[in-house]
Each structure stands twice: as C-alpha cells, then as structure tokens.
C-alpha cells in the first residue's frame, strides 16, 4: 500500500472525546483506515482523505501534526510481516511504533509502521 500521511492529535481523557473526532470525520465522509489511541490521549489516524481530515480536525480546534508512515496490507496468517520487517531491519531503519487497522479473520488488514525514514523503508521493503 505504500507511504501514507498519518495525522496525530491529543485528546482529553474524557467520555466522548474520541467519539467527537470520529463523528466529525464521518460527517465529512472521511473513512478511518487505521487508528491508535494511547492512554495519554495521543491519537494516530490514517484516513482515506488526509487533506480534508486535516481541515476538519483543525476546524474543530484540534492541534494536528502530520507524518509519513508505511501502510502495509497483511493477510491474517502467521509470519506475514517477518520478511518485510527483515528488509526494513537490513536497511538499518528503525520501526518506532506500529498499529493495525481494518480487516477480519477472512480478509486482509492493514498495519501502520512509524519508521524513522518512510521513503527508505518503502524502497527497502518494496512497497
């Protein structure tokens, strides 16, 4: 799937904070491809329209930063990521974080890799 734009923002630890972000995106027909939420309130989002999502989130008074990440389609089978991660490792690229997205036991899902150099990692992994 290749390099994608990840949106990062921080939410208060309060009921409905995440729901508000998801509702704002849904109201603008922006689909969430992958999402991560930490206990500290840091939200990482890969969406199908990052430019529009950035505008929506900023209009909602969220401070949003952008970062290039790798979005990898994976099958739900053991060892799917091993060869890809080996190529990234062999290129000397560090994986700083990872999280997953859409999929179920019968279809492919998506793994997001936050790496220190997305262009080099994509080239090394052939994605």
Task: Give a quick summary of the entry.
The protein is built from 4 helices and 6 strands, in the order βαββαβαββα. It has 127 residues and is α+β, with helices and mostly antiparallel strands.
Topology summary:
Elements: E1 2-10, H1 17-27, E2 32-37, E3 42-47, H2 50-59, E4 65-74, H3 82-90, E5 95-100, E6 109-115, H4 118-125
Antiparallel strand pairs: 1-3, 1-4, 2-3, 4-6, 5-6
Describe the structure.
Helix content is 30%, strand content 35%. The chain has a 6-stranded antiparallel β-sheet with strand order 2-3-1-4-6-5, covered by helices on one side. The chain is built from 4 helices and 6 strands; from the N terminus they run βαββαβαββα. The model has no long low-confidence stretch (mean pLDDT 91). It has 2 domains: 2-66, VC0802-like (2-Layer Sandwich), CATH 3.30.2130; 68-125, 2-Layer Sandwich (Alpha-Beta Plaits), CATH 3.30.70.260. The protein has 127 residues and is of the alpha+beta class.
């Amino acid at each position: 799937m290749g390099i994608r734009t990840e949106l990062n923002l921080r939410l208060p630890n309060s009921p409905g904070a995440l729901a508000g972000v998801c509702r704002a995106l849904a109201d603008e027909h922006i689909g969430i491809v992958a999402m991560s939420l930490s206990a500290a309130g840091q939200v990482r989002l890969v969406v199908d329209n990052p430019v529009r999502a950035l505008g929506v989130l900023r209009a909602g008074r969220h401070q949003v930063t952008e970062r290039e990440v790798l979005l990898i389609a994976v099958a739900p089978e053991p060892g799917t990521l091993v060869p890809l991660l080996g190529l990234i490792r062999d290129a000397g690229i560090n994986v700083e974080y990872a999280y997953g997205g859409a999929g179920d036991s019968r279809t492919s899902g998506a793994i997001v890799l936050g790496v220190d150099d997305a262009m080099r990692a994509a080239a090394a992994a052939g994605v």
